[in-house]
Amino acid sequence: MESNQIPSAVNKDFLTNELGLIQHLNTTIFKKRDFFVLSPSVQNKSNGFDLREVSLNKYNRIAHNGYLLIRYKERFLIAKLANFRKKMMREELKATSTSKTSHWKFIVKETPTLHVVCQTDSEETFPLQEPSSNQLIKFFQ
Asked: What domain of life is recorded for the organism (predicted)?
């Protein structure tokens, strides 16, 4: 990551220029044809990120081919959004905060394999795939 680059902007140019995804306003939502991609950036030492309910509500699992595409440091981690949502984004797993926006909080872990852990319940985990840049380009063509 370039030292002067805003953490949320890391690899955003790859999503828009190479994958042809279009960012929805200033959110983690990116779209292309029937693809719906939630793409949080994880650039902090704790490897944490959150997903907002308002973003998830824009996803229609019937109309969209949904993916969670985490921009993890300089790498990309991916999961099918419908499966991730069903297991990790249940009502009882929402983060408790004074924030008015409902959200879920997660941490990326690398051992023993790449996976996401729910901060509300660390027993809730979800495996991730790590595609290459070329694999992503071919997939989103």
From this structure: Bacteria
The answer to whether residues 67 and 34 touch, using CB atoms and an 8 Å cutoff, is no
Distance CA 138, CA 73 (A): 22
**Residue with structure tokens 């990790």?**
88
State pTM to two decimals.
0.90
**Token pair 């797993």 in the structure block, residue:** 93
Q: How confident is the model over 46-72, as pLDDT tens digits? A: 999 999 999 999 999 899 999 999 999
Phi, psi of 103 (to 5 degrees): -160, 170
CB 95 within 8 Å of CB 124: no
Task: Note the pLDDT tens digit of each residue in 2-27.
Answer: 445 555 566 899 999 999 999 998 88
CA distances from 129 to 4, 68, 72, 97, 102 (A): 29, 11, 12, 30, 27
